[in-house]
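okkk here we go again. third time trying to get the zinc ion bound version out, last two times i messed up the smiles copy paste (missing a bracket lol). double checked this time i swear
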Amino acid sequence: MEIIATGIFARVDPQKQSPTEPWIPSEEQYLFLFLKDRDVFCPLCNYNLRNLTVPRCPECGRDVRLAIGLTEPFMRWWIALCCAVVASAGIGALFWMLLARGGWPREGFALFQVAFVYLLASPLLAAPVLIYRRTLLKWPRSAQRLLAIIAIVVSVAAVIIFFAMIR
Ligand SMILES: [Zn+2]
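finally!!
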C-alpha cells in the first residue's frame, strides 16, 4: 500500500516513506492535524489557528507547537505559601530599614523578640519557596497544605504579636 501525502502533508516525500512501514506523523503534522477543522486560538494574540498550514501564527508571527498540559495544574497551596512568606518578607524588609535607623527594639518580651526575628528572617524564607517551586509542587498535596498552613499561621501570629506588643 502506498501512502500519498496530500494537502497540508505535501512536504512529506512519498519516495522516502517505506510502503510497508506505517506512516508516523511528525510533531508538526500532528499540529496541523489537530488544527484541521478545529477552532483553537493563539495564546498570544487570540487569532483563530483553524486550518493552520505553517507552525506559526499568521497574525503575530510567533511559532506555535502542540503540547501536553495538566488538566488541573495544582498550585493552590503553593500560592498560599507564597502569599504568607512574601507578605512577611515585605514586613521583614521594612523592619531591616527600621533596625538600621532605630536599632534593636527595647521591648523585652521573649515572644516579641521571636516574632521580630522571624519577620527579619522571612526574606530569606521567601527565596527557597520561589526557587524550589517545581520541587514543592511535586510534594503530596497534604504536605503542601501542611507547609502552607504552618507558614500562614506563623506569619499571621508574628505580625499580631509584633503589633500587639509595640504599643
Ligand atoms: Zn498569534
